[in-house]
Amino acid sequence: MSTGKNIYFASDFHLGSYPQSKSKERERVIISWLDHIKDDVAELYLVGDIFDFWFEYSTVVPKGYIRFLGKLAELVDKGVKLTIFKGNHDMWMFDYFKNELQATIVDDELLINRDQKSFYLHHGDGLGAGDRKYKILKKFFRSKTCQWLFARLHPNLGIGIATRWSKHSRLANNEDEHFLGEDQEWLIGYAKEMEAKQHHDFYIFGHRHLPYDIKLSDQSRVINLGEWMNYQTYAVWDGHKLKLEKWSK
After folding, report:
1. Taxonomically, which superkingdom (predicted)?
2. Buried b (16+ CB within 10 A) or exposed e, 185-211
3. Out of 53-62, 119-128, 130-139, which region has the weakest mean confidence (pLDDT)?
4. Long-range contacts for 174-177 (Cβ within 8 Å, ≥24 apart)?
5. Which of 1, 142, 157, 161 has the fewest CB atoms below 10 angstroms from its CB?
6. 138 pLDDT band (50/70/90 cuts)?
7. Is pLDDT at 59 greater than 80 in this prediction?
8. Are 213 and 221 in contact (CB under 8 A)?
9. pLDDT for the residue numbered 168
10. Rounded Cα gap, residues 34 and 236, in angstroms
C-alpha cells in the first residue's frame, strides 16, 4: 500500500497530439514526473485532456501510451487513488480505465474535502458566461446518440478522422496563450460566482492551458494547472499548503 500523503493535480497532457514525435517526448517527461512522486503520492487527480483524443469502442481503444498507462498501473498497484476527469478532448471515456486501473471517472465537477479544506475540481470547459456554440456541441458530443453513431465507424476511420483533426488544433499550430486579466479570465469569473454562493478554499481547473494561482480572498484561491506542452506545471497539496509547481527533468 502507498505510504504517501500528498495529493497531486495535473491536466492537459494532450498525449497523441500532432506531431507524434513531440507527444512521445512529452510522455517520457510525464513518466519521469510520475516516477519522481511515486513515493509521496496518496491521491492523483488528472483533470482532463490527458489524451488529445480518446474513444472506447466495445473491444478497441486507441493504441499507444503504453508506458504512461503502465506507470499509472504501477502507482495504483502501490495503493494510489487515481481519479480521471473527462476533458473536451477525451470526453468519450467509459469504463476502460475503471476496469483496468480502478480509476474514478468524473464527468463534470468534483467536490472533495481534505484536511479540513474544500476543493472544487473541474476540467474547466463550458463554464462561465459565453461560448454558447461550444456548450451546445458539448451536449451533443456527450449524448448517447452521438456516441452510438461514432461507434458505428470502423476504428481505422474514426480514429483517423480524430488524428487529422488534431493536426489543425491550436496545439499543433503552437498558438500562444496570454493571460487576459482577472476580469476577462472566464474561469476566474466562474470561481467568483461559485464562491458567492458557497465557499471553497480552492478552485482547481485545467483547460485554459495557462498556469496561474490567483487569490479570490484571504480564504479562497483559484488555480489553473496549465499544460505539459510548454509549462509542465502541476499542483500539490501536502496537508497544509497547496502549491503550483513546475516539473523539470
Report:
1. Bacteria
2. bebbbbbbebbeeeebbbbbbbbbbbb
3. 130-139
4. 177/208, 177/209, 177/210
5. 1
6. confident
7. yes
8. yes
9. 60
10. 13
Can you state the angle between helices 66-77 and 20-37, rounded to 10 degrees? Answer: 20
CB 74 within 8 A of CB 148: no
Task: Please give the pLDDT value at position 143.
Answer: 85
Backbone angles phi, psi at 240, to 5 degrees: -130, -40
Q: How far apart are CA 90 and CA 136, in angstroms?
A: 17
pLDDT score at 170? 57
Rounded Cα distance, 96 and 224, in Å: 27
Asked whether the beta carbons of 9 and 45 are under 8 A apart, the reply is yes
**For residue 75, what pLDDT is reported?**
97
To which residue does cell 446518440 refer? Answer: 145
Strands (E), the chain: 6-10, 41-46, 81-85, 104-106, 110-114, 117-122, 202-205, 212-217, 220-224, 233-237, 242-246
Beta strands in 58-198 (DSSP E): 81-85, 104-106, 110-114, 117-122
Cell (9 digits) for 243: 502549491
* 3-state class (DSSP) for residue 110: strand
The SS3 call for residue 181 is coil
Q: How buried is residue 140: exposed, middle or buried, by Cβ count under 10 Å (0-12/13-18/19+)?
A: exposed
Q: What angle do CA 176, 179, 185 make, to 5 degrees?
A: 120
What is the rounded distance in angstroms from the CA atom of residue 230 to the CA atom of residue 209?
Answer: 9
| pLDDT per position as a tens digit, 214-244 | 999 999 999 999 999 999 999 999 999 999 9
